[in-house]
Specification:
Number of helices: 14
Shape: globular
Structural class: mainly alpha
Helix content: over 70%
Distance between the termini: 27 Å
Radius of gyration: 20 Å
Order of helices and strands: HHEEHHHHHHHHHHHH
Strand order of the largest sheet: 1-2
């Protein structure tokens, strides 16, 4: 997902145009996966999984990888904590609160009471953006938007100064740490959370993105060709590994494959404009698309391929409209004098 802060920061550095393409395809992939999860027709089931893991996990991993890449691209040296954390908060929470409040009011009206899911204390995890990520431990909350990986990305942003020191100190040695971490969570029952949700797993993919940025691996032609061949092979043939490993391999090879495609497609004016728009709105689209899918699928119950294709187009269009609307509200509120005063406290130029 791409936030306004990412857009502003990346303008101060070399523009990595193809990353917009990867992020936009990731958004489309997540939407297609969630549509297939909510439809009964077999026509959409091929969008659910590959022989080496489900598409949802693959595209989420690509989002983590891209987030690590972009963040390192913009902040490769030590960070000023107060400024850094405020910008991260600004990139997520104002928009998240606006979309959540919209959904909360609609839900409260349906139930006929404000605290329809229990005492106000259950709002705490929701207001922290952690209700989806911690739903396995705290199922009672006011979880309405955001998916589980919002909580994971918030935790990764919090940990970023530490991860930055590790990546800059160890370099490629981080790969050894990543391998050990993935083996550990695969072989232990210490954690109650699903392995693909485990913060160690998510941080591993995030750090891979940081490494790709640090060494500019996206510029190596042979690596991109090898990635395309690997990705295509894994679309049809299962590797003798756990899906927790194969999803990471497909994430890496999928990123380089999409990046290479982006180098060509982003040269076309119309495609560039559409992709840039979807990439710019990826975070608000991510916040709104799931409840739009649920409402449209419940209303039309698509089964045939044509029906599912129409639902997909409708979800994309409606999601972009909602995303533009909520994004504009967020930008308007953040431009108000009160918010500007708060911002000056954290960010002193």
């Amino acid at each position: 997902m791409k936030t306004e802060t990412d857009t502003v920061a990346i303008q101060k550095h070399e523009k990595i145009v193809s990353v917009d393409f990867v992020r936009a395809i990731g958004v489309i992939g997540i939407i297609m996966f969630h549509i297939s999860c909510h439809t009964d027709g077999h026509a959409a089931k091929f969008l659910l999984s590959t022989p080496n893991g489900n598409w949802g996990g693959i595209f989420v991993n690509i989002f983590f990888l891209v987030s690590g890449l972009v963040l390192y691209h913009n902040h490769s040296e030590s960070v000023e904590l107060k400024k850094f954390y405020f910008k991260r908060w600004k990139s997520i929470f104002p928009l998240f609160y606006i979309v959540w409040f919209y959904r909360y009011i609609k839900t409260a009206v349906v139930y006929g009471k404000l605290f329809y899911s229990g005492p106000p204390i259950y709002l705490i995890l929701t207001l922290l953006g952690m209700d989806g990520y911690l739903a396995h431990r705290f199922p009672q909350s006011y979880y309405l938007v955001g998916e589980w990986f919002l909580g994971a990305i918030i935790l990764l942003y919090i940990l970023y100064p530490l991860l930055l020191k590790v990546v800059n100190t160890l370099g490629y040695g981080v790969l050894f740490v990543i391998i050990l971490g993935c083996i550990w969570i695969e072989r232990t029952d210490f954690f109650t959370i699903t392995i693909s949700y485990n913060l160690i797993y998510c941080a591993s993919v995030f750090c891979l993105g940081m490494l790709i940025s640090k060494y500019q691996l996206y510029k190596i032609g042979k690596l991109k060709i090898l990635s395309v061949l690997t990705f295509v092979f894994m679309l049809f043939f299962p590797l003798p590994l756990s899906h927790n490993y194969t999803r990471i391999i497909m994430c890496i090879s999928g990123f380089f494959s999409l990046y290479q495609l982006g180098e060509y497609f982003m040269k076309a004016g119309l495609i560039n404009k559409i992709v840039t728009l979807i990439s710019k709105l990826s975070f608000p689209i991510y916040l709104v698309h799931h409840f739009i899918i649920i409402e449209l699928v419940a209303q039309f119950n698509p089964i045939a391929t044509v029906e599912i294709s129409c639902i997909f187009l409708a979800v994309m269009v409606v999601s972009v409209i909602y995303a533009c609307f909520f994004n504009n509200i967020s930008l308007f509120l953040m431009n108000q004098p009160v918010f500007r005063k708060i911002e000056k406290f954290f960010i002193t130029e």
